[in-house]
Amino acid sequence: MTKLTPVLSAHWDEKDSHTLAGYQRHGGYNSVKKALAMDPDAVIQTVKDSGLRGRGGAGFPTGNKWGFIPQGDNKDHYLVVNADESEPGTCKDTPLLLANPHVLVEGVIIASYAIRAKHAFIYIRGEVTHVTRRLLQAIDDAYKAGFLGKNILGTGFDLELTLHIGAGAYICGEETALLDSLEGFRGQPRLRPPFPAIAGLYARPTVVNNVESIASVPAIIEKGAEWFASLGTEKSKGFTLYSLSGHVNNPGQFEAPLGITLRELLDLAGGIRTGHTLKFWTPGGSSTPIFTDAHLDTPLDYESVSAAGSMLGTKALQIFDETTCVLRAVLRWTEFYKHESCGKCTPCREGTWWLVQILRDLENGKGSEADLAKLLDLCDNLLGRSFCALGDGAASPIMSSIKYFRDEYLAHLTHGGCPFDPVASTLFASSKVGA
Amino acid sequence: MTAVQPQTDQITLTIDGFEVTVPKGTLVIRAAEQLGIQVPRFCDHPLLSPVGACRQCLVYIEINGRAFPKPQASCTIPVENGMVVKTQLTSDVAQKAQEGVMEFLLVNHPLDCPVCDKGGECPLQNQAMSNGRGESRFEGKKRTFEKPIHISSQVLLDRERCILCARCTRFSKEIAGDPFIDMGERGALQQVSIYEKDPFDSYFSGNTVQICPVGALTGSAYRFRSRPFDLISTPSVCEHCASGCSMRTDVRRNKTLRRLAGNDPEVNEEWNCDKGRWAFQYTMAKDRIAVPLIRENGVLREASWPEALAAAAAGLKGKKAGVLVGGRTTVEDAYAYAKFSRVALGTNDIDFRSRPHSAEERNFLASHVVGSAVRYSDIDQADHVVLVGIEPEEESPIVFLRIRKQVRQRGLVVTAIAPWQTRGFKKLDAKYVGVVPGTEASAIAQLALTSASVIVVGERLCESAGALSAVAELASKSGAKIAWVPRRAGERGALEAGAIGNLLPGGRPISDAAARVDVAAAWSVESLPSAIGLDSTAILAGAASGAIEALVVGGVDPFDMHAPEIAGLDKAFVLSLEMRPSAITERADVVLPIAAVVEKSGSFMSWEGRVRAFEQSVPETPHHSDLYVLSLVAEALGAPLGFSTVKGAAKEFGTLAKWDGARESFTATTASTAASSTALATWRQLLDNGTLQINEPNLAGTARAAVARINAAFAKSLAVVNGDLITISTDRGALSLNVEISDVVDNVVWLPRNGVGSQSLRMLGALNGAEVKVRKGL
User: Fold this and answer.
1) How many whole angstroms separate alpha carbon B450 and alpha carbon B608?
2) How far is it between the farthest Cα atoms of chain A?
3) DSSP letter string, B652-670
4) CB-CB: which of B103, B108, B186 is closest to A342?
5) If you write DSSP's letter for every residue of A302-318 in order, what string do you get?
6) Tell me, what's the pLDDT at B5?
7) Which of A188, A191, A354 lies closest to B107 in CB terms?
8) HEC string of B497-517?
């Protein structure tokens, strides 16, 4: 039985966990002191040795990303933290920043020092005003305490940290669209190459990292790469935040080593909604192909989830029990992608427009079995054909749900509409409120 | 296609089983073109930066045996050694991907081809047929928009047809530097947008209509006018300025319906300006002179050609005559005027410069310009381009685009010596050297150039005494090339043809006896007049004084000149060759109608000295070229020209076009030191009251406002703010305009030379640098 390994979330239950005092009570900002005494390349090497992989979804080794920044090029370098958490189901960065914003600030300082950036940016999702306030306060406090600004801790290292509040576009979570948005342009993904490591923000070498990736760095510096690498699996090292939502008795954040299974997590979360059974779930947010109860024992690490036909993504486990209509869930997600498609490329822009219409018809019992073949073919024309991964994300839930629940799609046609009672899947249905 | 690439590293790859070797950096889609393999595409354009938006050009790619996991956009991927590319021709994956994208593209497209202007010449229509599925599986609801919307008075946008390839927005941003259209909204509702009510303000907007791969952008004037298959298309050359653009003229039933930019990598690439594209109604004006006219009892009456030719001959015979050619003639027509003047009239009193001019200029043209060949490619390779006496965006737009391209691509250094830091100079990122008009010479003298530099000299620099001498001095000191860029399309050709008082064809100095013998032999005449001819101003003055008794006048507006002696036109016998009634017609004794450019063949010589030949676009026309009409007059005078066709004139000029003898020597003129307390700065805007722009309301709608420009300090001294009326006056007249505070040098007021309500020459009689008075109000 895998145990929880609370590091980032260790002190979330303390009232002042979000304050500088609360953070420092547990050794906060000690890692900065340690890191700034190291050679920057040694910091990069430590992160490489730890095996930390990007927690934003793609799982790219963080240390390698830092190592791509050309050094001695006489150019400004930038660190950009992607806090534009917008994926349906994904809810790890927001609680992390709400409860412990200083761990991110500390990580930013260490990462910036390592890549020789003098200016770092956090691009935060505009809707999370409460988090923005806390993060602003944390940054302000860090400046006052001398962790940011000129000559940090007397080491001669200067760093400015700017919090940028996004305007609410899912596409701005795509790193190059985020950079365009940060520069003041319309958020649409850029052509790569050049990659951000060569020409990112303001065409300067830039590292774009997820909040959780950067927040994991202070612990790695403090406890060492070996400690971090000792957790998790061979290729997916360390701990991470698993976010369980939906039909579970105790939804929330579960910080555990990579490789834990859903079965174990469900045990920790008090199980599926009482009296119900697991039907399907997303391993890493709505963009990752869905799993069923057949995957309860799939280790939730990058390789195993991939081998099972999905992606670890953001480890946003949305749990759906047998009361949920899979078509209804998929249609809602597809509507989201249609709404959030930036419009730049044809497959995503037009494909999502079309897919929604077919799915709506099917939900209403209109169409025929041939429409499933059409849906799959359209998804095949969308997946891997779009400019960025948004299109892939739009196709994945449709393809995977038809794979596992084809009969349920067809039942809509024979039933003349959705055979499910949508109320049964709601929270109030189980709690009998108002009954 | 793009300009010839300099030799670089070569890359060999395989496309559909064929090996091809292309320069490093070539995109896969271009490399395929080298093999004749057409990968379908929409957003891709060889002159725009890659964007990879439409995804139509997806192909399968392997590098050294490792396949990309998904099909790649061939318009964004540079070739690599060992690359194996499979297009739709050999890869089912590529074929299916392309068909899938095409089907997606048509989901929200209205498929209104039968009523769309683009139907029949539409890349979407064509490629949907060649690379799409036969039938769409889409049964849902299409996105609709209100249609069309005006993004400017001349460009309309049908948003539901748009496939969002971003060619238009990239063109505006990258090529024209006018980013007044951009994408707005998102998803399927994304659309090309203007900012609130600010229209698409660009002199180059027509190119977006031309490169739109669907019928989303249309030109107001052509919309719903024709189907492409009803048009007869003729390659042609633009007559509106000296840039030398290749064009295509589309004619239906003898009416010109459309003109498009031609593709000439060495000159205009694939672009042209809106004037070149959309100013041709003048050729079909209702007031075109259709038949010869003779003045009888003070009134012009229609006459037959024999009667009119006899009257012309009678009026010219034995008279001391002068010839005013005008700046819009073809090379062949100018050559005919040049020969007519010497052979039929026996005089060197001929000048094509129906605009402000100077003796210094004539000397400069004969010594530094005629026979020279500075090219667009010299701009491409220049280390420094100096602009003096020219605002290229207004006065030679393709020169502007070419300089801008080099500024964008490689940071070409540009210096602009001018009294006003215009929007065009800013778009060139030019180092602006502000000068009071008339003092250019000292600014020129301070420049340090190399033999790789190009000094771009506008025709109006002649208004600043000593400036051309300073240019000549700078060029000889540094080895820099001189690019003399006149405004009008015919000026350089007329110079080479000898339609000027100091030169015979080929730039032969009249002062050179051997040159005269040379030409006389070619023309089979005993001798040629040896006295240096008068210039335009002196010819008119001579007519006024009686020294000149007869005038042959081509397409000339006397009010384009500085202080013309109009009385001379009243006094002398005037033979006018004209298309439409003008100030000359009013005073002419015999008027002979002539053909517009689209009605004849010929060639223009661009500012480069490049011959730009074109064929007749309008198949049936009653009109004849100037040279044919002149040949008839010469015949009637008993002094035949020896040719009556464009081919004949071109062939004969061809034998005289080169001269390896000495050019006229140059005598420097010293700059004037007289300073004005308030000086005038003035030049023509691209779109203005020009006679070739009549009857084009949509085009005129995008003209820049005629305003008076002064700087903030000047405005303060006059106690005026933006929009206030000020009056500018000289002892010859006054005009009033609204003020726009601009980056103009101190104590200078800038006015359009031929704007609405601002014809500075005609209304003020004032040139650049002239002393003017400025006051608030009327």
Assistant:
1) 20
2) 73
3) HHHHHS---SPPPP----P
4) B186
5) HHHHHHTTS--TT-EEE
6) 53
7) A354
8) HCCECCEEHHHEECCCHHHHH
User: pTM of the prediction?
Assistant: 0.95
Domains of chain A in start order, with CATH, are: 20-229 (3.40.50.11540), 239-321 (3.10.20.600), 326-422 (1.20.1440.230)
Q: Is the peptide bond before B619 cis (omega within 30 degrees of 0)?
A: no
User: Contact B176/B407 with Cβ under 8 angstroms?
Assistant: no
Whether B302 contacts B592, CB under 8 Å: no
- List the single residue in B with minimal CA-CA distance to A356: B140
The answer to whether B681 and B744 are in contact (CB under 8 A) is yes
- Provide the shortest C-alpha distance from residue B73 to chain A (in Å): 9
Nearest chain A Cα distance for residue B12, angstroms: 21
Cβ B680 vs Cβ B769: under 8 Å: yes
Name the one residue in this structure whose structure tokens are 């890692």.
A31
Per residue in A17-76, pLDDT (tens digit) is 999 999 999 999 999 999 999 999 999 999 999 999 999 989 999 999 999 999 999 999
CA-closest candidate to residue A380, choices B96, B209, B622 = B96
The answer to whether residues A238 and A257 touch, using CB atoms and an 8 Å cutoff, is: yes
Confidence of residue B673 (pLDDT cuts 50, 70, 90): confident
Show residues of chain A in contact with B105, CB under 8 Å: 346, 350
8 Å CB contact between A47 and A107: no
pLDDT > 70? residue B4:
no
Alpha helices (H) along A225-345: 225-230, 262-268, 302-307, 326-340
Q: SS3 for B362?
A: helix
CA distances from A309 to A55, A284, A289, A406 (A): 19, 12, 7, 17
The DSSP bridge partners found for residue B61 are B85
State the smallest CA–CA distance between residue A22 and chain B in angstroms.
43
CB contact (8 A) between residue A343 and residue B50? no
Name the pairing type of β-strands B733-741 and B708-710: parallel
Long-range Cβ contacts of A327-331 (<8 Å, 24+ apart): A327/A359, A327/A362, A327/A363, A327/A401, A327/A405, A327/A408, A327/A409, A327/A412, A327/A418, A328/A363, A328/A418, A328/A420, A328/A422, A329/A397, A329/A401, A330/A359, A330/A397, A330/A398, A330/A401, A331/A356, A331/A359, A331/A360, A331/A363
Q: How far is CA B519 from the centre of its chain?
A: 32
Peptide bond into B71 cis (omega under 30): no
Question: Are the CB atoms for A92 and A243 separated by under 8 Å?
Answer: yes
ipTM of model: 0.95
Alpha-carbon distance B418 to B439, whole Å? 10
CB contact under 8 A, A353 and B50: no
Alpha-carbon span B347 to B323, nearest angstrom: 9
Q: Which of A340, A258, A332 lies closest to A300, judged by CA?
A: A258
- Model confidence at B2: pLDDT above 60: no
Say how many C-beta atoms besides its own lie within 10 A of residue A137's C-beta.
Answer: 15
A352 vs B contacts (CB less than 8 Å): 187-188
Contact B37, B22 (CB under 8 A): no
Q: CB burial class (10 A; 0-12, 13-18, 19+) of residue B348?
A: buried
Instruction: Quote the DSSP letter at residue B75.
Output: T
Q: What's the CA gap between B544 and B40, in Å, rounded?
A: 67
The two structure tokens encoding residue B72: 């790649």
DSSP string of B177-189, one letter each residue: ----EEEES-GGG
Contact B382, B412 (CB under 8 A): yes
> What is the spatial distance between Cα B82 and Cα B100, in angstroms, rounded to a whole number?
28
What beta strand segments (E) does B347-411 contain? 350-351, 384-388
pLDDT over 80 at A435, yes or no: no
Residue with tokens 């000048």: B351
